[in-house]
Amino acid sequence: MRRLDKLLFGAGLALAAAGAATSAGAAEIVIGLQCDRTGPTQIVGTHLCPGYHDYVSLVNSRGGIEGHTIKTIEVDHEYKVPAGVEAYALHKKEGAVLISLYGTPHTQALTQKLTEDKIPGTSPGFGTAAAANGENFPYIFPIAASYWSQAAAGLEYARTQLGGDLKGKKIAYIYYDNPAGREPLPVLHKLRDELGFELTEFAVPPPGIEMSAQVLDITRRYRADFVLSHLFGRAPSVSMKEFKRAGYPLEKVLGFVWAASEADIAAAGGFDRVEGYSAMQFAGVGSDYPVLDEIRAMYEADGKDVPEVMASTVYYNRGVFVAAIHLKAIENAIKAKGSADITGEDVKNGFEQISGFTLGGLVPPLEITGFDHEGGGWVQVFQVKDAKFVPVTDWFQGYRGAVVELLKEDASRQ
Amino acid sequence: MFHRESGYYKTTYKGDMALYPLPVGRWSVALIGVLFLVIVPLFLDPYYLSILCLIAIAIVGALGLNILLGYTGQISIGHAAFMSVGAYTAANLITKLDWPFWLAVPSGGIMAAAIGVLVGIPSLRIKGLYLAIATLAAQFIIEWVINHTPAISGGVQASIEVPRPVVFGETLDREIELYYFLMAFAVIAIVATMNLVRSRVGRAFIAIRDQDIAAEIIGINVFRYKLYAFAISSFYAGVAGVLYTYYLSIANYEQFLIVVSIDYLAMVIIGGLGSVLGSVFGAIFVTLLPVVIRIFMDTFGAFFFDPVILAQVTAQFRLILFGALIMFFLVVEPEGLNRLWLNIRNYFRIWPFSY
Amino acid sequence: MADFHWGFFLELVVSGVLIGLMYSLIALGFVLIYKSTDAINFAQGEFVMIAGIIVGACMASYGLPLWLAIALSVGFMVVFNVGLERTVLRPMIGRPIVAIIMATIGLAALLRGAGPFFFGSGTRALNLPIDDAPIIIGDHFIYLNPIHLLGAVAAVLFLLGFGWFFLKSRKGVAMRAVADSHQVSMAMGINVQRYFALAWVMAGVVAALGGVIWGSLLGVDTQLAVIGLKVFPVVILGGLDSIVGVIVGGIIVGVVENLAAGYLDPMVGGGTKDFTPYVLMILMLMFKPYGLFGKPIIERI
Q1: How much is the pLDDT for C2?
Q2: Range B21-349: architecture per CATH
Q3: Parallel/antiparallel/unpaired status of strands A253-255 and A226-230
Q4: Which chains pack against B, by 3+ Cβ pairs within 8 A?
Q5: Which chain A residues are closer than 8 Å to C15 by Cβ?
Q6: Which residues of A267-290 are buried (b: 16+ CB within 10 A; e: fewer)?
Q7: For the domain A147-281+381-399, what is the CATH code?
Q8: What does the pLDDT look like over B67-111, one tens digit per residue?
Q9: Phi-psi category of C140—alpha, beta or left, where left has phi over 0 and alpha has psi -120 to 50?
Q10: Which domain holds residue C67?
Q11: How far is A351 from chain C (nearest CA, A)?
């Protein structure tokens, strides 16, 4: 065992030296980026985070924001909460003015710390829907449509697909049986009572790799007119296959924002097998956006190949979207302050001034205000047509009044 | 090195029973105490304190698992679920009944212990693999029940926000205050475990681990002591869950999924089965491993990999190393880091006159 | 139960049986190892995952035909498992079961990191050359899923094959002897270590097949490993060391899951599908710990 001891001792010394070498830092604007690249949702992190980095590199390659470069510190937390808390402490130590959170439990665990430290955190497409109320959650910015807004928008889309009226129609809601999956239920119940459609809920327990019973129930016993599918992980692709095999038209299945990425389509067997499947998106999908051309040009100018992850446009574009909103908020903060010496509070105010920033259609027409931290709850529906994602609607909101009412109700309860 | 063990005579039973019979032992414990209670908090950035806070919580949990796995030889893959029982019990008591921390922490532990006993009941008939799978089932069943009982989970989100602990009228909301709060529990847990394992109960645990039928024949009530082990282990887990809830100011079952159970198993195995110090080493090691790998890759990774893929490679490398280390320790050094530490200590004990 | 439909019920049962047999296929690898070497493999799901990833990578990235990809994947699993047995499992013979469980948990983490490290982290399709339109029996009475049918048939063939192997063939009998007692078999001139390696090789081959079948259902990436969690209820219900038990356990789990989803879910308002097999398993552990077909262990000092 002696040799082993010496080996470990040597390794320890090397690591200590490495730790000492990293402690030097430069004066830049620092953003903390949390990712899951190895955990259960790695398929998101491995595509979203490169998109984020690429947009930041693009802005930096043009001289940064008002002449200040941006430094992102990425930490992979493997979807583990302690690792996320540690990552946040690191980001705070490095002087981050903005945290890009990832994961619902992480967002909840850090909400109080972010508020105490006055550092804004963003939770696009996850976290608590009630956090869209900026008066209650001043430092949490969902910036994209929350699950409540998604549910409302999904019903709006169903209405247009079912001839303009939901009254008496049978809607099936198939959901991942975890807090995130159950989150839209209050909106669905409220709108059911208001609009008079029939709603049945079908739970898919995690990990959701097998759901023939639920799909049989929807298609053969309940005989739904329209299906809202709020699934995560591997479940969306399984659901696509099951609906197809049950002979149910995929045009009548609408996924929430985590239910349709290129990876899900590949897992379901490829684009040609799930023709007609559609899903809501909170950032544009596809390669036809000017900002993506600019990123490709940046790689080519460096003499590098365009990375493979760019082909996975759903998550990659979301990374670009999140980075773009972040940098816009920082830009607003710097402009308001007149210097790069900004704090988290300045960035919070920067977020609340974002409006009419669409990045050539990749970003929805968000209007983030002091109350509305999700910027209106915009989504766009993309459908699989001719072996690719095609937008079938413009950016739209659904039953915004009902969602805002619920947000206010939730605020008064606390 | 700096001391000789000869020349100290134990003239009383009390002296013989002391945790640290030698003055050098007492001095080094005092030194470590001063280091961690006075010097470290004064000079460290809150970031490092937050890592120490997480380590303190992990120590409590790892000690609990080590009592069950290392001392009693009963495996549990549901440790995280017991943590969640403690967390939700305390969160409900704190938010609904306004209980202070000194009531909430033990009651979370007691509730976890009660559930632990329930899960431990099959351990009379089954052992080894069967018990492992039974505790795995307990993990899923507890998760499911919490997730589907709004009375426990506090509604659709299954998460309950908890105010910061108040100690002597002072709300602990700074990192340094939380550090002292959590460190106090870690120290209590360490001392309690050290005393437990040299008590009658602890020796019965060890007898059961080494050969349960033989233990029964020499008059140990195996069933009762196995249940004690489950209860005590789950109590620690419950307390760790409550501390966690206080530290994050939220109870959420997604913080206590099966991966957390596996992390705790890794702590106990890498640290050293059946050793208090080993649990501490393991908790430190598993908590620090991702941090150290990140620092290492940030510094040297650019020499080996393209920066575009570096983040991805770092993440996968960490997972590979984590798995490889568990296997390495099991195959090469089953007694874990604790054995390495003892080797080093024994080497220096007689140094420089080793022959 | 006012609206009880026989058609719906039958459909749940039929699809449950088919899926259950596909679970059996995964559980088979686990039982093969336990039966022959007394080792517990918590990384069976990761074996399936890595085999599936290799098939997917060979087809998508190198354009190999399906049969060659499967052959390569089987070959890799054989080599990998022989190496694994020599370096990790063999030094651990005679160590407490807890240590072996932990070692395979470590192996699982390693494979989850290594799979994407070497073969890329993207999700790939693994399409078998069969149509995914349903097979309809009777006038819209029962919809059958072709891939489920194929998986179930493959599982039954494999299970029967291994049943025959253990009962009739010389090697199979030797393996059972090894499982019974290492020392006695050694005394009888059986090369115990070779049979240990053989058991791991067979588990690798079964995992490769499982990877192809489940991979074609779920797509291949690290998520495929979650199938490993289905193994435990199956083996506990059936008995850890019984091939018949694996079939019966698989079918029970598949059917119970489907009936729970169909009839229990609407009552409790939550997903009970993955939860009921575990409850069933706990009951089994309490009343008949060695499963329906398992061999009780008698311990002596």
Answers
A1: 45
A2: Orthogonal Bundle (1.10)
A3: parallel
A4: A, C
A5: 212-213, 216
A6: bbbebebbeebbbbbbbbbbeebe
A7: 3.40.50.2300
A8: 999 999 888 889 999 999 999 999 999 998 989 999 999 999 999
A9: left
A10: 7-224
A11: 33
